[in-house]
Amino acid sequence: MCDAGTAFLPDGAGTEGCGTAVSPPSCGLPVTSSTSPTDEPGLLQLVVGTWLRCSCPSGAGTIGPMASVGVEFTPDKHFYFLYLDGAGKLVRGGSFDDQGTYDYTGGSQMNFHFATGGGNGGHPVFSACPRKFEILFDCGGAHGCDSVFAAQ
């Protein structure tokens, strides 16, 4: 059994993103094993759901506005960056920068296509216990540009 803690959103957390304690306790737990999907159906099985940001990376490879606290992936291959409203509840961002579509190519690349144009992509890695999702970006050898999320 995996006891990875319970996701939480603190009362009065505000609407900031990175820097607020909105991540689940599982963000701080070590990963015991990880897997990467080999095809798009495998990706969908692993990624669909709500994910809260564990880290606030800086670099060209990060996904989502830094003010976002997480991301939601839907079965129809859309994504929406999430924010906290005034009551501390998760809500989808309302701008075109906060949404887009995703796909999986070559058995290793998860691509993000933003509604405003442009995109980004990286190698997804998942762990079952604790349930985490990390996008590994090619940042030219730079560190700190990967995005880590934990299941809500």
Contiguous low-pLDDT stretches (5 residues minimum) are: 4-17
- Beta-strand percent range: 25-35%
What is the CATH third-level topology name? Lipocalin
Domain tally: 1
Helix content: under 10%
SS field, number of helical segments: 1
**Which term fits the overall shape?**
globular
Distance between the termini: 17 Å
The CATH architecture can be given as Beta Barrel
Which CATH class applies here?
Mainly Beta
Compute the average pLDDT.
76
Radius of gyration: 15 Å
**H-E order:** HEEEEEEEEE
User: Reading side by side through the largest sheet, how are the strands ordered?
Assistant: 1-2-3-5-6-7-8-9
Q: Would you tell me the structural class of the helices and strands?
A: mainly beta
